[in-house]
User: Fold this.
Amino acid sequence: MQIEQIEILEFLKRHSPFKELPDDLLQQVASDTDVCYFKAGSPILQFGQSLDALYVIRSGAVETFRRTGELYNRLSEGGLFAEQGLLRNRKVRFPATALEDSLLYLIPADRFDQLCEQSDFFADYVEISDEERRKNTPNRRADANELMTSKVSTLISRAPVLLDMNSSARDAAMAMQAAGVSSLLVMAEQRMAGILTDRDLRNRLVAPGLPFETPVRDIMTTELISISHHQFVFEAMLLMLRHNVHHLPVLQQGQPLGVIAISDIIRYESKNSLFVVSSIFRQQSVSELAALVPDVRACFVRMVNEDANSHMIGSAMALIGRSFKQRLLELAEAELGPPPVPYCFLALGSMAREEQLIVTDQDNALIVHDDFVPEQHDAYFQQLAQFVCDGLDACGYAYCTGEIMATNPKWRQPLRVWQQYFRDWITAPSAERLLHSSIFFDLAGVWGKTEWAEQLNRTIAQLAPKHPLFLASMARNALQRTPPLGFFKDFVMENDGRQNNSLNIKRRGTAPVADLIRLHALAIGCSDSNSFARLRAIIKAKLLPPGRGEDLRDALEVIAMARIRHQALALEAGEAPDNQLAPERLSDFERRNLKEAFQVLSNAQKYLKFRYQGNRS
Assistant:
């Protein structure tokens, strides 16, 4: 082998899909490879041109385009292009131009065909488009946890026990005993009117001393929480946690198919967020709650290793965080006594969006009733807020350095003040108010009068679309955090003295994605908080060009999972988890997909400048 061919061989050994090839085959490839040089700005391939080689970038950077002229991809060292054309009649599908002075390796088309025939990995790699790689990352392992992949219908072992709503409590108890079940569904003219459980019989019949002939309609639960048969077991678990119920009717086309209980899920899973939450509500002190931190971290790592997606993990961690807040509020009220006026404790930011991870601070606030008189009532709520925020810090949710906490009197206000806050932020935007908009426009009630939080969300959804100046200001604000890609499509590293050669995957990745999705959701009056739910509404509203919403959804998943896996690996290594991702620790495949996801984010930010200009409605 000549020196030049040895250099080619050594280079190919460092990059997929070549490094996975056997040595003898790779040597043949290196022997046949030609070298070409293109100056910056010069065309490399034009649409429809005949193809006779696969192009691999040795150095420099190359842009490829759709036939419309829209940027398709930007590639750097190790990137390859023209594979799609070679697979389809050997004609250029994506024109290419040298972005900077570039040295390229050209692998003959016949050799490309041979590699596809002899290597399944190579064939799979080149047959998958860049967009499909993003959508399929990370691949679901064959041994993925059944909790994440099994449908609710698999838990149903028998038809539901049904009873007419005019039947007596005695009839219900006898029917449950005969069937060996702990619940039954109460029907009214072929319609499900409620559910009756053994707990309802104890608490609403036996304890108050009601006669056994009491109609079940008087003691049943009418606020039904149900689930569809095609949803996942994991979603059933989340519903049970969110609504604190132990039985879920399963519906098919609106009709009851069966009922699943917590015990059914327990058979699937014995160490998950359900048990962490159950443990939280059994603890009697802050120190006992803080002792659960290792269990929370173990739950996080396990979900990652069992191939849960980012929405599953974010939802579960948010539910755990919400449960800590709720138990701390129970303990606080037990110590301080009942509140002097009604209140609602708010979760803000990632917890409200159900996108919380293991590295997080606490963002919270408190709404009090409009009868609130500071001189008479605020001492109680100041103590309550201090108790909860101190407890959250002890449980791993660090104090917010920006003081976005209920301990700050500014964020402990009557409902009428909160309503005015949001009106001012939307109708008269300023730099400070825009900062608040980015934080407080993701909110959820976790305790007390949670309907007040829903009321604020409705106010936001009604006002925001009517104020284009506010949306334009939010757009400018959203562009202040850009993805970590330089002009030549390489990662921009951060060197702050502590985190060398790394990038902050939250500040430069998940946060700007959440910012622009929030903005689009405000523009269409969407009251959802979760980014994936917001994206579904945005796509349905056709606010974005065709396909852009789906691309953004896939990019969010790739970026979020990179952050999640980084934190899980740190925990497994016994290190303190953080958001500082070192790209050199990623595989070539992960680097490629993360770069593509950042490019999608960059393009989405460019669209903000066009869409929200202050004079658009």
